[in-house]
Amino acid sequence: MIAPGETIGILGGGQLGRMIAMAAAQLGYRCHIYAPEADSVAAEVSAAFTCADWHDREAMAAFAGNCAVVTYEFENVPVEPLGMISPVPVLPHPRALETAQDRLAEKLFVSELGGTPAPFAAVDSDADLKAAIERIGAPGILKTRRDGYDGKGQWRIGSLDEASAVDLPSTPLVYEGFVSFFAEFSVILCRGHDGDIRYWDSAENVHQDGILSRSTIPASAAVLAQVGDARALAAKVAEALDYVGVLTLEFFATESGPVFNEMAPRVHNSGHWTIEGAVTSQFENHVRAICGLPLGDTALAAREVEMRNLIGDQAHGWPSILADPANHLHLYGKAEARPGRKMGHVTRLVL
Ligand code: AMP
After folding, report:
1. pTM across the whole model
2. How does pLDDT run across 100-157, given as a tens digit for each residue?
3. Of all protein residues, whose CA lies closest to atom 6 belonging to ligand 1?
4. Cα(261) to centroid(ligand 1), Å
5. Are 275 and 296 in contact (CB under 8 A)?
6. H or E stretch covering 309
7. Which domains are delineated in the chain?
8. Does residue 151's CB lie within 6 angstroms of at least one atom of ligand 1?
């Protein structure tokens, strides 16, 4: 067990790290952020900050020397330099990162566990893309295997003709058939050192331009009917990875059941509602899990909860958001409200 007062290392300096650090502080832990960008909103609320490249082995080793355990808030952290952190534990285990970093590896892994992803094919050339579209059909989405997030690194392809006009990047890609879904939802669980698994209620998620816009609890009855199967798959993923911490799987709800979209080996935007809407938040339970503490209750703390992201200049509306007492406003302290940038979120409870 890692006792309160010790230091938790967090790889990545964004808002997820900020909210993990705030939950850690409540339990008496100190946090040390490691990130390559100097303007870290996580570092602003943490005890220590190392601003260094992911591949700076000396900086990584010195950082580890100050930590009792290391976790991550960003799934594109390169795995190889994490060897420098040993013997300090990295949780969840970096094998979860390795799996989730590559869309192809992730889909194969989940398929082997009995999950159903959208039909997919690896694409490394124009000929591969043509063959993939002939087999899977169009429309579909071409995605970079690595480094994509919030809809970045994705191209909608309407037809074989459209595909021939695409100037393929030189990175490995995956082509996915377009899923006809009636809703999207996520399963967020936390697994402790002892294998204890807790689930939060599944939120129904609405995306705009590939970015999460809104999460609503409870999900509709049609979605709730699919949550059992989706949770069973998420538990298999967690067990296969001997996972410790919060794990998220995103699904499309379709007429033929839940279709796996992607997994995130970390706390997730569609779980921000748990700060006020659940007895224990995803951030607190993640800290509890990686420190070997007993997990907290994940039950709902309200009848209905809605979380809305504040993207770009939407955050400028904060005075009127604050004026409504049902709203809980979270601003991440980012200086520049660029289009598509997550600046904050607001959670609304119906008690
Ligand atoms: P992703 O980054 O892969 O989660 O994609 C972001 C969003 O794009 C998803 O949440 C969906 O709204 C949409 N999307 C991605 N892949 C597909 C697909 N194969 N079929 C339909 N919609 C998709």
Report:
1. 0.96
2. 999 999 999 999 999 999 999 999 999 999 999 999 999 999 999 998 766 678 899 9
3. 210
4. 7
5. no
6. strand 304-311
7. 7-90 (3.40.50.20), 119-177 (3.30.1490.20), 183-350 (3.30.470.20)
8. yes
